[in-house]
C-alpha cells in the first residue's frame, strides 16, 4: 500500500477543488463565479486554445448518440451546456420536426433562475423551471417532438447559450447539476461536454444523472484526460505553460486558465471514472479515447431493470 502522499490526486479526488478551496460548497460557488467571469470570451478562447478541435469533439460526441437523437420523442439533456455549442451539435442530429421551436410550447427566451437547493422544498426536485414543456408529460402528447434541455448554473454562460438556442427547440435551464429540477426517470440521453469535471462532487453528480435518466437511458460524458508518455509530456507543456498565459490574455482571467490544467490533473483516470460510473448503478461503462488520449468519451446505460 503506497503512502497517502504517493497516491496521485486523480485517484483520491471526490470533486473539483480550485486552488486553495477545501469545501464542496465553496468550490461550487468559486466555479460558478469563474465561469460567469470568463463567459464573454469563452467561445473565442475555446476555439483558439483548442485549435478548433472543440468543434470536432462536440460533433464526434453527438454522432455517437445519433440513434437516440433521431427519435423525435427522445428527451435529451445537455448538462453543463455553457454557451451551448455541444447542445447545437446534438440538435443537428434531431429529426427536422424536432429542430425548431414547437408552436404553443414556449421555451423561455432567457433562462430563469430557480431557487437554490437550500431554498427548495425537501423531497424530489420538481419542475420548477418556467417552461410549459417542462410541466408536460411526453406520454400525453407523444406526437410533439421533445426539446433538448440545456442546463448550466452559470447565468452568464447560459445567457449566451440561450441567445443561440432562441430559434430552436432547446430549453435553457439555469440549475445546479447536483440538484436538477427534473423528474425521476424522465430523460433518454444525458450528455456533458467538459462540464462534469467541474462538479464539486462526482459521486453526487452521477447519482443525480442516474435519478433523472429513464431505465435504458444513456449518459455521454466528454472530458479532458491526462495522457501518459510523449503525448503526456507535450500535453503538460502546452496545458501548464502555454495555455494559462494565452487563456489569461484572451479572457483577462489567468486564474481560470490555471484552474483548467489543475482540474484535469485531479479528474479521475478513465479506470477510476468507470468504477465510479459502475458504482452509481450504470452498466456497460466504457471510455473511448479521442485526440491521442487528451480527451475521451465515457458512455454508460441505466439498466432496464434494477
Ligand atoms: C468548460 S464549460 C463547458 C461548456 C460547454 N459544455 C462546452 O463544451 O463548451 C463547463 C460548464 O460547466 C458548468 N458547470 C460547472 N459546474 C456546474 C454545476 N454544478 N451545475 C451546472 N453547471 C455547472 C459551468 O458553469 C460551465 O458553463
What class do helices, strands and sheet pairing give?
alpha/beta
Largest sheet: 7 strands, mixed
CATH architecture: 3-Layer(aba) Sandwich
How far the N terminus sits from the C terminus, by CA atoms, comes to: 35 Å
- DSSP E strands, number: 7
Low-confidence stretches: 107-132
| Radius of gyration, whole Å | 19 Å
Write down the CATH topology. Answer: Rossmann fold
How many structural domains does the protein architecture include?
1
Strand order within the widest beta sheet: 3-2-1-4-5-7-6
Q: Indicate the CATH class.
A: Alpha Beta
Mean pLDDT: 87
Strand content: 15-25%
User: Total number of helical segments?
Assistant: 10
Tell me the series of helices and strands, N- to C-terminal. Answer: HHHHEHEHEEHEHHHEE
Secondary structure layout:
Layout: H1 9-12, H2 24-49, H3 53-64, H4 66-69, E1 76-79, H5 85-91, E2 148-152, H6 155-165, E3 170-174, E4 187-193, H7 202-212, E5 213-224, H8 229-251, H9 254-266, H10 270-279, E6 283-290, E7 295-301
Parallel strand pairs: 1-2, 1-4, 2-3, 4-5
Antiparallel strand pairs: 5-7, 6-7
Helix pairs in contact: 2-6, 2-8, 3-5, 8-9
In short:
By secondary structure, this protein is α/β, with parallel strands linked by helices. The protein is 40% helix and 16% strand. The chain has one domain: Rossmann fold, CATH 3.40.50.150.
